[in-house]
Amino acid sequence: MINSPRPRITSMGFWLPCSESVFFHHDEDSDILDTKVLADHRLKQLGEEHNNLQASVFHRLMAVLYHKHYTHVYPLPDPVGVVAKKDKADPKAIIFAAAPEGNGPLNAGQTPLHWRDKDGAPATLTVRGVALLVNDSGYYLWMVVYESAYGDGSPDEAINDEARTARNHLQEHIFDCIGGEYFSHYSGSAEDLPKVTSEAERTQTLKSYQNDLRGMLTFYQINLILEGLYNSTLDPRIFFASESEEQIEAIKKEYSLAQFINLIASPLKTEHFLKPEAASAAWPSAAPPLAGPTTVIRGTPSGVALLPSSAISQAEKLPSYGEMELINDVIALHTPDPANIEQSRALAMRFMDDLLVNAVRRPIIQRFLSATSDKSLQTTKRRVERCRRALLSEMLEVTHRRQPLLQIEPPDDNQGERIEGVDEDQLRGYVMLLAAKLPLITTVELHLKGIIEQYALWKKHSGSPWDSWRTVMRSISHDISRLETALEQANMDRQLEEEEQIRAEQETLAELERLRSRTEETISPTFSLSINYFANIAALIAVALGVVATFKNFPFVAPWKAVSNFMFWVNFSYLIIYAIMLGLLYFSIQGIITWFLRLRHRNRKHAARSEERFYYEFDLRLQAPITGEKAQALFNEEFGKGGRRSGLPYDGGDGKPTRNTYRVQRTAKDAALHKVYIEADLFLREHPRRFRAARDKAHAILVYEIRFHSPTKGHEYILQDVRVVINHRQILTMEQIDYIKQVIATHFVNCWITDTSWQLKTKPIDALFTLNHGNAS
User: Fold this and answer.
1) Is the pTM of this model over 0.90?
2) DSSP readout, 521-561?
3) CA 547 vs CA 104, 403, 541, 560, 582: distances in Å
4) What are 391-423's pLDDT values in tens digits?
5) For a tag on the chain, would you pick the N or C end, based on fewer CB atoms within 10 A?
6) Are 723 and 759 in contact (CB under 8 A)?
7) Four-residue CA torsion sign, 643, 646, 648, 649
């Protein structure tokens, strides 16, 4: 009957990098080939010693697919020159067949194959037979026979809907075979456990994937996928970790084996693997159009396409299977005739030789190329470009261009992969990761090149998907190479900058030593003035007493008689001598007192220096623009009088901010570096105590580096660095250090910077205020 139900076939395949050496290890796998493949091709369960993820593809398939409901296996050597009989030569391909429930014998302990829907519910279609063909070129091809509820005369829409349902069920089976939503990079070893950040990765490990026989992929293949083509670590949201732990785990789960296989798996139409007249009879609505003499009909992942004959190898083999012939062969693979095993092997040889032709290989490879080009290569290229833009913004920020650098960014970045708020070191690490993982993609390129040339999938590479894929790959390699060069240059610049910073610190320390040596030998102006007052008063009293004593001991002589009075001149001479002696005594006493006080002052300073054994340095790299007026005000020490009651965080009088040293370094005709040294006694708490003021303050040296340059119109000053050095006799508490940071930011940095975007802020927190009492978290 026209509308009577009948079996139909659906197919799906994908390609993964593989080669002869990866597919079969002669020394390790020959024993499996000799002892585990039975004469009737029944698949035998392997022991736990074969649960090795670093084994060959053949080894892993033999260990896993027994637990995925496959019952028969056909290792096949190269069909060229091999007769249809059991041969112990190294296999070039292997076919597995599964026995659905009620459609064939099962091995002891095996359960029949049940199709499942995405939600785990039983499938609505009945499976008649499943065959999986894997060869050493990396092709994985499934052929599934299912019982269709519609005959040949049924509506095309109903048949197509049923076919889509069958492909969805097959897709779920493929996901189960490769390990499902496995995504973890954690090996399962105790050494790597501290690096694991999510609970899902702790429970889902490569060790469990291996020992629990979760999937049939080898470590070689998993590594190429999860570390190369589909690496979650390359996602900026993961690498720069700007999301919460729950969000990061959700992002990592997007990079699973099932998600990747879903991208590269190609659903095949009958036009791909059936001869044209058979495909036309099986799917009348999808019959290929008539082709002209210069075209060849070939299938694509989305349907039938007309390809120029120049794109197809003249020597390639065309499909030769009829529909019912292929359906019967798929079923026969899991129901071999015990009396005629050689016939089953011959059937498997033909299955490999006649089914996997270029008409099947080409759409599978084309799907792999298009999917990885879009989701792997193009995504990587976009990330490299984002990284380059972020690096350029970071490097040019210190040039203080008159116009800010505005670069093109995607207007709608739905992926959230925009790179912002990262520094040069993080960008360097990201580029290093890209460069380190690029060889994995290069390995994939080498495998692709080998099979495309081996099977002549495209006679002319120009304009082919392979040519487009290689173009993107070369572009990525070139971009990463240039980005590494830029980072290397930036690193050299930073090393030079660090050398300049070291010289600046040495210069600061030398200047501090000179300041200390000067202050040890000098007495403060207030102290010197007190000594002078004391000496002058003492001298005045001595002179007054001498005059009184002189005129008291000698009689009074009238002025008009003084010239002729001998005693008057004697007394006057005594008075002069007495005054000279008093003057000498005055200067001697003043010198002795000054020497004594200076010695005592130096000893006290030296003792204080020996007690000030705790060193605190605050080095602020600012690169902040300031106005010429602010630069001049800084040079003129316009800080304020200070004092305990002034509300300012520094002492008044001798302890107020005072400029004591100034240096200038001319680097060009329009550039110079000004260094202003300021001394101040800073309070260590907001409200210093009256009787413990000495304990609540510390002497500080502040070094301002102001760069003058004129990049465009006018002149500009850049507050390049502020360095604060404090020595104290006691260990400062976290509260005191936090207070000093606040004082430095508010009263010694922000007061000179008019542009608030360059000022140091506590909300959002500036890096200066990390690791302190108020922001320890």
Assistant:
1) no
2) H---HHHHHHHHHHHHHHHHHHHHHHHHHHHHHS----HHH
3) 142, 81, 10, 20, 12
4) 777 666 655 555 666 777 777 655 566 777 777
5) C
6) no
7) positive
